[in-house]
Specification:
Shape of chain A: elongated
Oligomer: homotetramer
Largest interface: A-D, 22 and 22 residues
Helix content of chain A: 10-25%
Structural class of chain A: alpha+beta
Distance between the termini of chain A: 9 Å
Number of strands of chain A: 5
Radius of gyration of chain A: 16 Å
Strand content of chain A: 35-45%
Order of helices and strands of chain A: EHHEEEEH
CATH class of chain A: Alpha Beta
CATH architecture of chain A: Roll
Number of helices of chain A: 3
CATH superfamily of chain A: Hotdog Thioesterase
CATH topology of chain A: Thiol Ester Dehydrase, Chain A
Chain lengths: 134, 134, 134, 134
């Protein structure tokens, strides 16, 4: 599976008084990146929650900030699945300024699948072809 | 029931690049105000959700902004129940700078009770003494 | 100036434990609506801040909630300028579910122009043709 | 300098539809932790920004999530300064459920000092005694 790109525009609400994007919002952008990554694999993360009753819970986050993103800029979130098995998934991200192209931040998130009772679970087999990385 | 006051300190995350608190965050502060109002009546809003299966859903919000709140300032949220019956509740709020005392914003929220299926519901009778305004 | 429409997809971060979008986020969507409205008039709100040193400060917000928006749904923000003069602007909004089309919420915001010292100011004349409603 | 503890109560706005706190909000709590840490050293981070014109910019964040925090729970943020020199600071955090005591998450943030032009800068010498770790 190649890297997947999704674009977004920085919201006023995402800035802070430093005049740049508040750092916690990059984690929200990573979430958008992985949801769109899953969508590009042919199905919705939402269906996993509502139809299959499994949740993708974040167990680890890391982000390195190189240049600040600013209000109204167009930002590209480049997402790839780094590792996966039926119990866990790891995504890597690059957050880039669209034009001119420039790396703003890079990060990763690690997840486990949980069932509705918030207990560790497994990704159902029918999704393995789509979501398990060779 | 007299007005209830709760205090909070402005978070960096709540500011925007204008150098003041982003306006949508006042709604979050109102929510803190009404939760603490309910707590001051002798029980938890959380229990209403988990034990009684009823939710207090917002149907209307209004806020007027007079002076901006700034990072690290202490803010007082003064909450009162303006109207209530078993089907709806209306709260009024004043958001004030703590010292010197100054009105920053005033607003109101109107709510209906919903059950777990998101259908209009009624506040159980045992709470009427606490939460229904004479 | 006709109504302007902009689309967005509900983020996971925008939901709360009620399983629907947290009500304060509708104000963020209104902000996106008016920024895109201004862009459709031929210039950037960002430039007003950085080049002209004037800010569009919110003085009043009102929102009525009819149906909840949910995670991953596509939402349309329909924005129109209701009133304006060189000192103030008022916007009206409809927030609709994209498909099937359904009104989720309606609201309005009133703004005044401030200069960099957060004092009331006037919209520079060269923008009047674009941003003042006949 | 010993560890510093600050308490907060989980806001409804901080939950997501999983029924627990949205993971990005732990970064906001870490920010509260380090601001209160600085305050416990005898001065305000706010003054550093407004009087000295220096900003504490985040360059790296890491967080590991063990147990979810839930609405209305009291949470303790335990903050310590792990490393520091006139150009950078590193904080470590434990985010704990208050009662019963339980570790919910642990993390760290690394920061550099920036001047008003967003260029790397140095912490003024008069603060070294307070903010530089032996």
């Amino acid at each position: 599976m190649p890297k997947h790109e999704t674009r977004l525009r920085v919201r006023y609400a995402e800035t802070d008084q430093m005049g740049v994007v508040y750092h916690a919002n990059y984690l929200v952008w990573m979430e958008i990146g992985r949801v769109e990554y899953v969508r590009s694999c042919g199905f919705n993360y939402k269906d996993l929650e509502t139809l299959e009753g499994i949740l993708l819970s974040v167990v680890d986050v890391q982000c390195r900030y190189l240049y600040p993103a600013r209000y109204d800029e167009e930002v590209v979130v480049r997402t790839e699945m780094v590792r996966s098995n039926p119990r866990m998934v790891e995504f890597g991200y690059e957050i880039r300024h669209a034009e001119p192209d420039r790396l703003l931040a890079s990060g990763s998130t690690r997840h486990i699948w949980l069932n509705r009772n918030m207990r560790p679970s497994r990704l159902p087999e029918k999704y393995h072809d789509f979501l398990l990385r060779a």
